[in-house]
Amino acid sequence: xxxxxxxxxxxxxxxxxxxxxxxxxxxxxxxxxxxxxxxxxxxxxxxxxxxxxxxxxxxxxxxxxxxxxxxxxxxxxxxxxxxxxxxxxxxxxxxxxxxxxxxxxxxxxxxxxxxxxxxxxxxxxxxxxxxxxxxxxxxxxxxxxxxxxxxxxxxxxxxxxxxxxxxxxxxxxxxxxxxxxxxxxxxxxxxxxxxxxxxxxxxxxxxxxxxxxxxxxxxxxxxxxxxxxxxxxxxxxxxxxxxxxxxxxxxxxxxxxxxxxxxxxxxxxxxxxxxxxxxxxxxxxxxxxxxxxxxxxxxxxxxxxxxxxxxxxxxxxxxxxxxxxxxxxxxxxxxxxxxxxxxxxxxxxxxxxxxxxxxxxxxxxxxxxxxxxxxxxxxxxxxxxxxxxxxxxxxxxxxxxxxxxxxxxxxxxxxxxxxxxxxxxxxxx
Length: 429
Ligand SMILES: *Cc1c(COP(=O)(O)O)cnc(C)c1O
Prior knowledge:
Layout: H1 2-12, H2 17-29, H3 31-54, H4 73-85, E1 90-94, H5 100-111, E2 117-120, H6 127-133, E3 148-151, H7 162-168, E4 173-179, H8 192-205, E5 210-214, E6 233-237, E7 251-255, H9 257-267, H10 283-313, E8 317-319, E9 331-334, H11 338-350, E10 372-376, E11 388-392, E12 398-402, H12 407-423
Parallel strand pairs: 2-3, 2-4, 4-5, 5-6
Antiparallel strand pairs: 1-7, 6-7, 8-9, 9-12, 10-11, 11-12
Helix pairs in contact: 3-4, 3-10, 5-9, 10-12, 11-12
Bound molecules: pyridoxal-5'-phosphate.
């Protein structure tokens, strides 16, 4: 009865009955998978709750500070809660870290000195880091400060090139940067366990090497984090997983006390470090977003699994596939034509709570060689824990999509993407 009513509403909201019945069958098959995702969220929910209780979180911590922000008890408590959740000595969690790229920049530049070398043992890092490191020329890059970079690619099967890594580590190798998520690259996301074995190997080669993990999109997808398996620093964005969709800005760096302190001296100033940085009333939102994060991540994961199974059944190539374990919230779907990529993104946009009336079109985005199309109807600009999709308009026409503040919204977005493909005659049911 309720199901019938539900499908009637979907029909009034633009979804064809044929699409509903096709997708309902698949959803039914995913019950077991969804309950595993829920159990993971339950574990992380308790981990976060426990950390908040241990730190005596109270409404006094929600008060705003201004100016220098000395003695911001809420900020210090938030950092202590993050350190407990990530099992680290210290944390820097700040609205002044304006994005994930900024947090990574601060973690790197705070801990590296001229003459040091960075090693990426997992291939090319995320696009925005190319300018930061100086892989591509950019003003203010680490390369300009005499910091060099070396890279060892993953093997064709996705495994680590142990020999190559061994050969790359030298007396100047100060820090290894390990990107957990595939981001928008065509490789598999690393599990926490894989990251753990990589860190163990690196530390055997060089005990004092700093292992930094770019943790973007990975937080709370598993019951452990890279910092549980030896990472000296984990870094990420608050407008992705750990902000729970509520954080309007921010980034975090958790890890060894010395590493976090070095980062803080770079974020503010040598001698000032963590002591300053007013939170302007954001603490309550950052705590509450963190509290909701496991549930939000679970919704995004269900959406990704649902989409993978639907598009796989229709004959498209999907990464990860419908069955495999998940280590981040990103889903790649190869749609084989520009028309299909555009239709998919227009469907995601049409399903959004914000800007649903806007039609996304491909455009020449600065810094990209091909045109790019993006769909996002988010409460927080650029927030990719909210349902969003983007794709470069180039073969093989792969769309990357992620997020969904609730599973039901993710579901509607995917139904709508399918609807748009269906209307254009790009799929047959
Ligand atoms: C999102 C992301 C970043 C940082 O991106 P911002 O848009 O600057 O927050 C870095 N690495 C990975 C893997 C990411 O997914």
